[in-house]
Design a protein that fits this description.
Blueprint (H helix, E strand, L loop, with lengths): L1 H23 L4 H8 L6 E10 L4 E10 L4 E10 L3 H4 L7 H15 L6 H13 L4 H5 L3 H16 L5 E9 L1 H6 L8 H7 L7 H12 L4 E7 L7 E2 L8 E6 L4 H9 L12 E10 L5 E8 L2 E7 L4 E2 L7 H32 L1
Parallel strand pairs: 5-10
Antiparallel strand pairs: 1-2, 1-4, 2-3, 5-7, 6-11, 7-8, 8-9, 9-10
């Protein structure tokens, strides 16, 4: 009887965990089960510390990023005038212990803490304008550190910033079970709800909200692809689309040169952009915002639900198959040579 009760409790717990995981897998049961078993991680946890010795400012911070949904889940920081906070920051501990140690450090600092709340708000809003997801996905600590260093340097107007980070992988389920606050992005609600007409005032407000998160907003067009493209209605935040810049302003030209997308005749070639916002317009269609560089958004007005070109992916499996066939042909040729030599030797 006790075994049956134990099995029942275990089944109930498994069901509870799967139900939680389903929230973060968009209802995908297979991924939810993998998440419960610890085989599907969708979160990157960045643990870091910073130091600016000339102004005697030191700090420790953490960032929880949902790599699949491409949104910021949680961020917090602690700044102090004491260098010990930098020297003792346990950034190489696993993320669960680091989070608990961070809480203890906040309690211990007391009056030594300086402007942490204001900096955290700036930190969170600034991260939204930088394309840090790809660097984290590729474990590119150098470039990710540079993004964070730039944010800190701009806030304090001080370039003598030292940044060190470490990255752990986790799942949204594990983060929730640790009772860590998770912020659900507004973008996810926009994706899930059907497009609705938006009054002009509200449209302007939404555009200003998105554009205020970037230093530069440049204009562009999508590339229509009737056969292999994807309908504008169906693209989701975080997906990559192909765009062509339209204006010849200095920022647009600089971005094009960065992607080697400017011809000798100063014509633009397509570049990739990660969709950051998709705002429905009153008369139909969308205003799209794509991130093309750090703090640079490309703005696209598309009035029809056309099929547009997504980022092209190289077909590596086909190349591998060709290489495999070539190896097979070479092996067969060598085999025939060996057989011929054996026959010749036998005749001699």
């Amino acid at each position: 009887m006790n075994d049956e009760a134990s099995n029942f409790d275990s089944l109930n717990e498994q069901t509870r965990l799967i139900n939680i995981a389903l929230k973060y897998t968009n209802g995908d049961m297979d991924k939810a089960r993998l998440m419960v078993s610890g085989q599907y991680n969708d979160v990157a946890v960045i643990k870091g510390r910073l130091a600016m010795e000339p102004i005697e400012t030191y700090g420790v911070f953490f960032i929880f990023l949902n790599q699949v949904g491409r949104y910021l889940m949680n961020v917090n920081s602690l700044l102090s005038e004491l260098s010990s906070i930098y020297e003792k920051a346990p950034i190489f501990n696993n993320w669960k212990n680091f989070y608990r140690d961070f809480g203890k450090m906040v309690q211990q600092q007391g009056e030594s803490s300086i402007g942490s709340y204001e900096f955290t708000n700036h930190f969170a809003s600034s991260l939204e304008g930088y394309n840090i997801f790809e660097d984290i996905e590729e474990d590119n600590l150098e470039d990710a550190s540079e993004v964070i260093r730039e944010i800190v340097a701009k806030y304090f107007n001080n370039n003598s910033v030292q940044i060190q980070i470490a990255i752990d992988r986790a799942s949204s389920l594990a983060v929730e079970l640790e009772n860590i606050p998770i912020e659900t992005p507004q973008a996810s609600r926009v994706k899930e709800e059907p497009a609705a007409e938006m009054p002009l005032g509200e449209l302007d407000q939404k555009m200003n909200e998105v554009e205020s998160q970037a230093e530069y907003v440049i204009n562009g067009n999508v590339i229509v692809s009737p056969v292999k493209g994807k309908y504008v209605n169906d693209i989701k935040i975080g997906e990559k689309i192909s765009v062509v810049l339209t204006d010849k302003d200095s920022v647009s030209i600089k971005v094009a040169k960065m992607f080697n997308a400017l011809t000798d005749e100063r014509e633009y070639l397509p570049i990739k952009a990660r969709l950051k916002a998709k705002i429905p317009m009153e008369g139909g269609g969308y205003i799209l915002y794509g991130l093309v560089a750090k703090n640079v958004l490309v703005k696209i007005i598309e009035e029809e639900n056309v099929k547009i070109e997504m980022e092209k992916v190289e077909k590596k499996p086909a190349e591998s198959a060709t290489e495999s066939r070539l190896i097979l042909y070479v092996a067969m040729l060598l085999g025939l040579v060996v057989i011929a030599l054996v026959i010749i030797m036998a005749l001699i």
